[in-house]
Design goal:
Elements: H1 12-25, E1 29-31, H2 35-44, H3 48-56, E2 63-69, E3 77-81, E4 84-85, E5 88-99, E6 104-114
Parallel strand pairs: 1-6
Antiparallel strand pairs: 2-3, 3-5, 4-5, 5-6
């Protein structure tokens, strides 16, 4: 029965961003350490906290691709974001999952570096992949 309320449901990309923010807030973010990450942090003078801040600030228009299946853990979805950090468009690849039974989100940052080419924003949720 419709009571006339029109509570908007978050889109799939909004749910993914909320999960990343929850993971950051809960301290449940794991960064895969790669040589490229060290160079990025040094070049941008971006500490680990700066990367977490960039993850907290993700918005729907930063989505470039997703959800994609995580080939390392089938319980997680992988998303690609293109936020601008310190004036540089970044390539950010994050796997998002939930820990059972509480459903607490966790995030694995696979990539966090300047984009190698301009990244095209994803369209609406119907064509995100």
């Amino acid at each position: 029965m419709d009571h006339g309320s029109s509570i908007p449901f978050p889109s799939e990309r909004e749910r993914a961003i909320l999960a990343v923010r929850e993971a950051v807030a809960a301290g449940r973010v794991h960064v895969i350490r790669r040589r490229r990450h060290r160079h990025v942090f040094a070049r941008l003078r971006l500490a680990h906290d700066g990367m977490l801040d960039a993850l907290r600030r993700l918005e729907a228009h930063h989505v470039r691709a997703g959800p994609m299946r995580d080939h390392h853990d089938g319980t997680r979805d992988v998303w690609v974001f293109g936020p601008v950090v310190e004036g540089i468009e970044m390539y950010v690849k994050v796997a998002i999952g939930r820990t059972e039974p509480a459903g607490v989100p966790h995030a694995v940052v696979w990539s966090f570096h300047p984009a190698q080419h301009p990244m095209t924003p994803a369209g609406d949720d119907s064509d995100v992949q």
